[in-house]
Amino acid sequence: MRIGPVDVLVFSAPTLDGSLWAVDALHEALDSGAVALIDIVMIARATDGTVSFADVDEGLPAPLQNLLAHPSPLTLLSDRDVALAAGSVDNGEVGLLLVLEHRWARRLSERIQDEGGVTRLHERVPHDAVVRAFRADGAAAT
Fold first, then answer.
1. How far apart are CA 42 and CA 40, in angstroms?
2. How many CB atoms lie within 10 A of CB 11?
3. Are the beta carbons of 75 and 108 closer than 8 angstroms?
4. What does the alpha-carbon distance between residue 15 and residue 93 come to, in Å, rounded to a whole number?
5. How far is Cα 61 from Cα 59, in angstroms, rounded to an integer?
């Protein structure tokens, strides 16, 4: 099975209330077929800095768990990866560590591989850098 490019993202917010702020947005992206959710870890950092985790095997809310492309997550994330991601979640926040496959790019990747080619670089441009570039060109961006 060929796989599209995969990215790891961490989003955080002050709370993960009953509406589960990410579920609707994730559903939209997943339902379009543009991406597939390969793995997910919820990271909660208390105001005193204590960190707790929830994943598919333990404690992840069902609405988030049900978004996975496969019944059991792939083992792409190591404990070190999760600890690194936890460092980006501030005290009093809840974060979602997502592993997403870019299915929209799979077909392009397949065609390139069929022709004997390879993907030479897959780099994410930081959001702040993109916003600065748009603004520098006079375009509104947030």
1. 7
2. 16
3. no
4. 6
5. 6
* Cα 55 to Cα 111: distance, rounded to the nearest angstrom: 35
DSSP 8-state secondary structure symbol assigned to residue 49: S
Q: Report the greatest alpha carbon distance in the chain.
A: 54
Task: Read off the pTM.
Answer: 0.81
Tokens standing for 97?
């560590």
Run of H or E including 39: strand 35-45
pLDDT per residue as tens digits for the range 63-122: 888 888 876 666 788 899 999 999 999 999 999 999 999 988 888 888 888 999 988 887
Which residue type does 59 have?
A: G
**Number of Cβ within a 10 Å radius of residue 74:** 14
Instruction: Report the amino acid identity of residue 32.
Output: S
AA identity, residue 57: D
Measure CA 27 to chain center. Answer: 13
